[in-house]
Amino acid sequence: MDGRTLRGAETRKAVLARAVDIASVEGLEGLSIGRLATELGVSKSGVFAHFGSKEELQLHTVKQASRIFYDEVIAPTLSTAPGVDRVYELMSGWLEYSKSRVFPGGCFFAAVSAEFGAKPGRVRDAIAELDRTWLKVITDAIGQAGLKADPEQLAFELNAHVHAANAASLLHGDDSAYKRADHAVRAALGR
């Protein structure tokens, strides 16, 4: 890479790193090309050149957050053989992802799903697709575990437990919610 291309890649990386943090706390509507340029000390035109519009910035931010989520929650479970342990690791990994504040606002997708759930458009569609994918990951892991439960129903319930912990932790500053969610997940899996 020449120097200009390398600087452009570094700027894009820095913009997306800051954008996912802002969006986890303030939502995707809290993002602006001007704000990111100011906070990062780069030109507004330089940021605009990477994304072109607020919607494109939002879409790239969602995509970046999904990469981080995959690396933090899903990838660590891939070395575990299919079974109840993998299902549990998925859920405990999600709880740790929220508790450790990988994103300062807790779960990035909980924040932006609430913000865009009723707003039609490309950003909502991208968020909804990632939510479906996450539920499918859980459902498939349950199916492979051979549990005597409806995989879709159990996936829904497990996902609800971890999301409730995220919400309680953020709203009430109650980290004991993570222990409660872990207990509920263990009970649901018969562990």
UniProtKB/TrEMBL annotation:
SUPFAM superfamilies xrefs: Homeodomain-like, Tetracyclin repressor-like, C-terminal domain
DNA-binding region residue numbers: 32-51
Annotated InterPro entries: Homeodomain-like_sf (IPR009057), HTH_TetR (IPR001647), Tet_transcr_reg_TetR-rel_C_sf (IPR036271), TetR_C (IPR011075)
Domain HTH tetR-type: 9-69
Protein name per its UniProtKB record: AcrR family transcriptional regulator
GO molecular function per UniProt: DNA binding
Transmembrane domains' residue ranges: none
Keywords: DNA-binding, Transcription, Transcription regulation
Phylogenetic classification of the source organism: Bacteria, Bacillati, Actinomycetota, Actinomycetes, Pseudonocardiales
Pfam families: TetR_C_13 (PF16925), TetR_N (PF00440)
Keyword Disulfide bond: no
Organism domain of life: Bacteria
